[in-house]
Task: structure prediction
Amino acid sequence: MGARRVAIAAVLATAFLGAAATAGVLVGPAGLPARGVLEALGARLPLVPLDSPLSATQETIVFDLRLPRVALGALVGAMLAVAGGAYQGVFDNPLADPYLLGIAAGAGLGATLVIAYGPADAASTLLLPAAAFAGAAGSVGMTCAVGRAGGRGATGLILAGVTVAAFLTAAQTFVQQRNADTIRDVYGWLLGQLDTSGWPDVWLVVPYAAVAAALILAHARPLDVLRVGDEEAAALGVDVTRVRLVVVVAATIGTAAAVAVSGLIGFVGIIVPHAIRLLVGGSYRVLIPLSLVAGAGFLVIADVLARTLLAPAELPIGVVTAFCGGPFFAVVLRTSRLVSA
Amino acid sequence: MTALELRAVGVTAGGRAVLADVSLAVAPGEWAALVGPNGAGKTTTLRAIAGLVSHAGTVLIGGTDAAALGRRARARRVAVVPQVPVTPPDMSVADYVRLGRTPHLAPLAREGAADRAAAAQALGRLDLAGLAGRPMGTLSGGERQRAVLARALAQEPRGVLLDEPTSALDLARQQQALELVDGLRGSDGLTVVAAMHDLTSVALHADRVHLLSGGRLVASGAPREVLREDLLGAHYGAAVRVLDDGGELVVVPGRAAVAS
Result:
């Protein structure tokens, strides 16, 4: 695709993220004045001669509730979209998503165990994300062990992921049914939420997401070379096995960290990379950075909708991503066919 | 010094020897043709040279044991043009040709000005400059073949390994592609090793012919020494006639009765 088209897409994606983040900070049940919030934000910047017009309570709402929520949404959305694009490249499979290797099921089991058997306030402590992360990492470990034993390369790994996911989901459902009193908490977690305890959750994800995204971005060109197939990539001097391993490990760690704090948010990892692929082509050097920006914007805006549609109640964000993402993707699918035809 | 040398190269797949004890040498700038029936080991020989399959014996590239060369160093010396190249349909011709710069880049580096210049030059030499922005999926068979050759050229190798380079092309495109390769050989001193089916083309282009059969090298020599009715008949299991008008050799199918 032309450089011009890519540049336009980059500008649009960045503007989208900016608009989504602004909406995320401005919108909320407290009904703070938009101008006051913007001035309060400006006052925190160095060299800006503004005084915050907000009260201390209002300041807390903006800086300790809304901002970390926007930041977490952006981080999780960016990570899921980048990981989805990376998995699709590594496995040469358009249906690959970040939960491909059993992460969702493993994290779900970990979270369910903590909610059902942990201390009563487990859901609000770091025990929950820790258990979800451990479950995610454990399930990927199982998938790799089973996949390796079965051989057959990438296909074997995908089949192993399906098997491990089915097994762990069965275990998770068993625990969940035995503890009917906590079923609501479990479902709330499974459907995904960005209802955080504030900045600690954000700082929990940042190191994993940063390292994972940096590694995947660095491998964008090797992923492009892999598009001509393993044999030709090897003939061009690429260590195919190593590229695949590094990218899978990075995407998995990043996804596990995202899942640990946000639960299972479906659809982002599939829909964002594919929408970008349809609009600007499949080069990973374009796809990965654009997925990062657009994924961040998409999840932040989805969270704004999740908070407002049924206010003061909150919709699970996974419901919003699928409900809004589905029709959006259908439109992209149609128009991109018209464009490329 | 030889450009390429195989010493007792063997490849086993699934417990079966698909290539056994193949030794041959290719001089710099030479066009070596690998011929033989389907399953004789032509493609496997090319893959062993490129380091795409583990093998017994030794492959020497420019006098150096290829096993001692890294993946990238090897790819800077020999480029591979597969029989059925994978060409992502939405990838632009320019991007596709630039993939040829991969072995010249540090593992996670991006292309620099020199790489873009080399790719642009390869595009120009194969008459693809006007198609640079086109997606690969919109090219004709002949254009796609030229793009694949341009990618190999952008690799700036000393030798190219061609696997049935003309199998998907019509007669005129076949001639063009082979003349093109021959031209590059003349201008760049490129060494060519090509697995080929059309034996008349072999006679026209190859300096030396290596006849493989059942994974073994059964004859090597000038076209006139290898393209003989008795050898071809015995190893292809087909009746062929070799017509020699003193200038060119023409290999044509004969009637079954002529064989044996």
